[in-house]
């Protein structure tokens, strides 16, 4: 194994610590804590784990955490009403509606209801548009976390060939926009891409976000490339009845060839919540009119 392992867990812990470091001055200036509201509809076990982790991390950072758990039978209109109530609540700087939502609820309508200036997930079309044209807004947490890891590892990214595998609104598309803003030459590949192996082989930076266990093989990786694996896939483990987590990249193979790689777990995963806290801190400062130096965090 030759690649450097990118320790997202350590980086995320450090980022959370830095966010927490800004909270006392904010509290003193605004006479309140930054506040994050999370809405969870239904009982999806993975969503429950995420929401619990978000709550714990928010409290640990010295912020206020507001949780709204709703029955899966809630009507779309009732959920719209709850989001509007939070839009109007001055103690709430960030609103996150945990996805997926039940089938009878139109996710896009709910996201469109969130005040774009409280949209710390960066899912609202206004924030997608701000990202596309280079205006300040909120960038989805997972891709922004990936970019932070890349900058930390590589410094200046300009001129590098980046291939993003996956075209979701949550990861693939915003990731491509971020890399473009860093002056990378960006390719977005997906399930219909012809000769995906050849496309990935061109890349100095590979970001894998397809949701298919170990799809990207070691011999697809250009020697020395930096590999960011966003995938979190549960697959059968070695022992009967046990499962394990793997990424979208065949880790052991890729680590033989890559210059640097994120592991699963412990790579990109922990960055998402750390960036959510960062976005909430930024939202709180903007909303309260308290100065936070550009690029401070
Ligand atoms: N479900 C899985 N990941 C996310 C996320 O980052 N934000 C929201 N709102 N829901 C999710």
Strand/helix succession: EHEHEHEHHHEHEHEEEEHEH
Q: Could you list the spans in which at least 5 consecutive residues all have pLDDT below 50?
A: none
Q: Which ions, cofactors or small ligands are bound in this entry? A: guanine
Total number of domains: 2
* Strand segment tally: 11
**CATH-defined architecture of the largest domain:** 3-Layer(aba) Sandwich
Name given to the CATH homologous superfamily of the largest domain: NAD(P)-binding Rossmann-like Domain
Trace the largest sheet across and list its strands: 1-11-8-7-5-6
How would a textbook summarize the main sheet?
6 strands, parallel
Structure description:
By secondary structure, the chain is of the alpha/beta class. The chain has 10 helices and 11 strands. The two termini are 33 Å apart. It has helices spanning 8-30, 45-60, 76-87, 107-113, 125-133, 141-154, 172-181, 196-201, 251-257, 269-288, and strands spanning 4-5, 35-41, 64-70, 94-97, 161-165, 185-189, 205-208, 226-229, 233-236, 243-246, 260-261. It has 2 domains: 31-116, 3-Layer(aba) Sandwich (Rossmann fold), CATH 3.40.50; 141-270, 3-Layer(aba) Sandwich (Rossmann fold), CATH 3.40.50.720. The mean pLDDT is 97. Helix 1 runs parallel beside helix 10 (269-288). It is 42% helix and 16% strand. The chain has a 6-stranded parallel beta sheet, with helices on both faces. Guanine binds next to strand 4 and helix 6.
């Amino acid at each position: 194994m030759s690649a450097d392992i990118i320790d997202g867990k350590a980086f995320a812990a450090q980022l959370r610590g830095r966010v927490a470091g800004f909270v006392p001055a904010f509290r003193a200036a605004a006479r309140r804590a930054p506040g994050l509201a999370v809405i969870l509809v239904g009982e999806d076990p993975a969503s429950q784990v995420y929401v619990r982790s978000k709550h714990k991390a928010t409290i640990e950072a010295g912020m206020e955490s507001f949780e709204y758990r709703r029955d899966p039978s809630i009507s779309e209109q009732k959920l719209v009403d709850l989001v509007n109530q939070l839009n109007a609540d001055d103690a709430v700087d960030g609103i996150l509606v945990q996805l997926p939502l039940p089938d009878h609820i139109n996710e896009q309508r709910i996201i469109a209801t969130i005040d774009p200036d409280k949209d710390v997930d960066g899912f609202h079309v206004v924030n997608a548009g701000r990202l596309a044209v280079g205006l300040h807004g909120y960038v989805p947490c997972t891709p922004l976390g990936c970019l932070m890891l890349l900058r930390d590892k590589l410094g200046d990214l300009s001129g590098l060939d980046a291939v993003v595998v996956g075209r979701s609104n949550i990861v693939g598309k915003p990731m491509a926009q971020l890399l473009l803003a860093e002056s990378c030459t960006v390719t977005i590949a997906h399930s219909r891409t012809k000769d995906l192996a050849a496309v990935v082989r061109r890349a100095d930076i590979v970001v894998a976000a397809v949701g298919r266990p170990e799809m990207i093989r070691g011999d697809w990786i250009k020697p020395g490339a930096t590999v960011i694996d966003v995938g979190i896939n549960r697959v059968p483990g070695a022992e009967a009845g046990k499962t394990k987590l793997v990424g979208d990249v065949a880790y052991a193979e890729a680590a033989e060839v890559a210059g640097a790689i994120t592991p699963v777990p412990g790579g990109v995963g922990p960055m998402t919540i750390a960036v959510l806290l960062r976005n909430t801190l930024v939202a709180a400062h903007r909303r309260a009119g308290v100065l936070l130096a550009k690029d401070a965090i």
